[in-house]
Design a protein that fits this description.
single chain; 205 residues
């Protein structure tokens, strides 16, 4: 890996994902996680402070980037919940079928190369009736914004670790066989529209 991918890109992505409007959105959804929790794309650990230790029995963090795992170390040390890393890609979840109560994914489906395959894996490991808690950005409803997203997407992906601006997270989740029990879609306050159209809440396996 080059200097940019090893140091600059993780720092930029971590900074962008830690901005106050994004932290506020994380605080709305992550506390609902319960039982044995698998987080896909743990990154530098921005969700860690929002897990409720009274509800989470164990947290498994899947994160293939060593740079991100190093950045998350301090946040992980502060957790009182039993914790373990999975140094694997989201398409390669090694857990048993129907073994997880909650899966959390925040600003991750935009980046996973094969998001459809990853979501099939998520559904496989979730127990019947288990919940997928998601907070994702993606294709905007306004045509002018969407056209700009389409034009910018190739360059954006090279600068932001493979992130796609124009994916439709709700469509991906539904195509994987989930029932979207709750959904909230809106532009994040204070964020540029091209990267700030959010979809969040809960889907049921």
């Amino acid at each position: 890996m080059g200097l940019y991918a090893s140091f600059v890109e993780p720092a930029l992505v971590s900074f962008a994902c830690s901005l106050p409007p994004i932290r506020a959105e994380r605080a709305k959804v992550v506390p609902a996680a319960a039982g044995l929790v698998l987080e896909i794309g743990f990154g530098s650990g921005h969700n860690a402070p929002f897990y409720d230790p009274a509800k989470v029995t164990r947290l498994i963090a899947l994160e293939p980037s060593a740079a991100m795992r190093r950045k998350a170390a301090r946040k992980v040390e502060c957790l009182s919940t039993p914790f373990e890393w999975l140094d694997l890609k989201a398409e390669e979840i090694p857990l048993d079928a129907a073994s997880v109560d909650t899966v959390v994914t925040t600003f991750t489906l935009c980046t996973i190369p094969d998001a459809a395959r990853a979501l099939q894996g998520v559904r496989r490991v979730l127990k019947a009736g288990g919940q997928l808690i998601f907070l994702e950005h993606g294709a905007a409803p306004d045509e002018s914004v969407r056209r700009f997203q389409d034009r910018l997407d190739p360059l954006w992906g090279k600068l932001a670790g493979g992130c796609h601006l124009n994916r439709n997270p709700l469509a991906l989740i539904a195509a994987a066989g989930f029932k979207v029990a709750q959904a909230d879609q809106r532009y994040a306050r204070g964020a540029p529209k091209f990267e700030g159209y959010l979809s969040s809440r809960v889907a049921i396996a």
